[in-house]
């Protein structure tokens, strides 16, 4: 586990050099939640309704904006308003995976205009270093107004059975995170990755990447399509700073009750990890 995992969110926020990481830890501390809800619903109404009802209990909402059947300006305006109302961040789980020139257009332009509204995005590093460089470049362009409020998570591992995001791929994820740490806020992974010392010459002492762990579910071990689940306790014990739950929350009989339960368990596991500081 990373040496920073034992510190409180408050301590990690205090002088974190990555603006978005600092914001994430501040929100977690203020709202006492490390829950990200994966709102994988298919209409704007369902998405905004979930965001409003679950808003008080979550730190981040994760979207797959391209699964909405009715995406429009209203989707963006509505999400932005709810993010401000409830103090959560928006993570578009677009998993960019292409050459630099293409991902810049996918991130910044097109129908979805992701860079305008998503605080956090993620990418696979299968194409190599250029994808990280390209996304970082877009976010730091002098005519890009949201610069410091944007961050990237590198998809360093996956939860699905037979995932090939392992070994050398995961190590390179750490190298690129270190190389572009102004823009790379952290990882989507099943555990903290900092200790792997992929290329230790790139590491710095103040390094503190944020770990988002998906595949969190309290009542299921997996689905019929290869998804594999762990509990909030297990994820946080392995170094997750934020737990991502989808169907465990939005498909529960009462999503608000479920969100509260994940919040409670996630927070207790975090307190146990930091030893009641
Ligand atoms: O390795 C991964 C990475 C991600 S981002 N495994 C995943 O399941 N995800 C995403 O997390 C996936 O796309 C989905 O949106 C969510 C998991 O949903 P659940 O309903 O299985 O909790």
Automatic annotation (TrEMBL):
GO terms for cellular component: cytosol. PROSITE patterns: OMPDECASE. This is Orotidine 5'-phosphate decarboxylase. It comes from Aspergillus sclerotialis. Keywords: Decarboxylase, Lyase, Pyrimidine biosynthesis. The lineage of its organism: Eukaryota, Fungi, Dikarya, Ascomycota, Pezizomycotina. GO terms for biological process: 'de novo' pyrimidine nucleobase biosynthetic process; 'de novo' UMP biosynthetic process. One of its GO terms (molecular function) is orotidine-5'-phosphate decarboxylase activity. InterPro entries: Aldolase_TIM, OMPdecase, OMPdecase_AS, OMPdeCOase_dom, RibuloseP-bd_barrel. It catalyses: orotidine 5'-phosphate + H(+) = UMP + CO2. Substrate binds at residues 40, 62, 159, 227, 246-247. Gene3D superfamilies: Aldolase class I. The active site is at residues 93, 95, 98. Its EC number is 4.1.1.23. The keyword Lyase applies.
